[in-house]
Amino acid sequence: MTKNKKTKILIVEDEVVISKAYAEELRDQGFLVFTAMNGSVGLEIATREKPDIILLDILMPVMDGLTMMSKLRESSLYGKNVPIILLTNLSASEEKILEAVTKDEPVYYLVKSDYTLSDVLEKIKECLKQKK
């Protein structure tokens, strides 16, 4: 797992319990983890730290996840290409989400209630493999 020690993951999630659970598990797996409670702080961290992948909640205070993703995608080549996994409680039938997922690739979409922490970890590993 020495390879993963340098892999950076940013978790942008306003639900403290979820953020902590993901962060602890990912750190245990050897990843370097950054966390933010809203899209505004998440955008600052993403721009500064350039994580290899971003877990991004959609509904958050200050700046929502779709706005953060849009600003990041417009900001640089890094922002255009970093894989983002959208985590939400919303249904994928929401028009805004469908548009974001199809327009702003590489984007993956997971409904929090449908996936366990292990499932999310597997999706992260899958996305990182595809990135290489």
Query: Number of helical segments?
Result: 6
Decide which structural class fits the backbone: alpha/beta
Q: Oligomeric form of this entry?
A: single chain
Tell me the β content.
15-25%
Percent helix, as a range, is 40-55%
Radius of gyration from the CA trace?
13 Å
Uncertain segments of ≥5 residues (pLDDT<50)?
A: none
**CATH structural class:** Alpha Beta
Q: What's the β-strand tally?
A: 5
Q: Assign the CATH superfamily.
A: Response regulator
Summarize the entry for a quick read.
The protein is α/β, with parallel strands linked by helices and about 130 residues long.
Note the topology.
Elements: E1 8-12, H1 16-28, E2 32-36, H2 39-49, E3 53-57, H3 65-75, H4 77-81, E4 84-88, H5 95-103, E5 107-111, H6 117-131
Parallel strand pairs: 1-2, 1-3, 3-4, 4-5
Helix pairs in contact: 2-3
Question: Would you mind describing this structure in some detail?
Answer:
- The protein has 132 residues and is of the alpha/beta class.
- It is 48% helix and 19% strand.
- It contains six helices and five strands.
- A five-stranded parallel β-sheet has the order 2-1-3-4-5, with helices on both faces.
- Strand 1, helix 1 (16-28) and strand 2 form a beta-alpha-beta unit.
- Helix 2 runs parallel beside helix 3.
- The two termini are 16 Å apart.
Notable characteristics:
single chain, 132 residues, alpha/beta, Rossmann fold, 6 helices, 19% strand
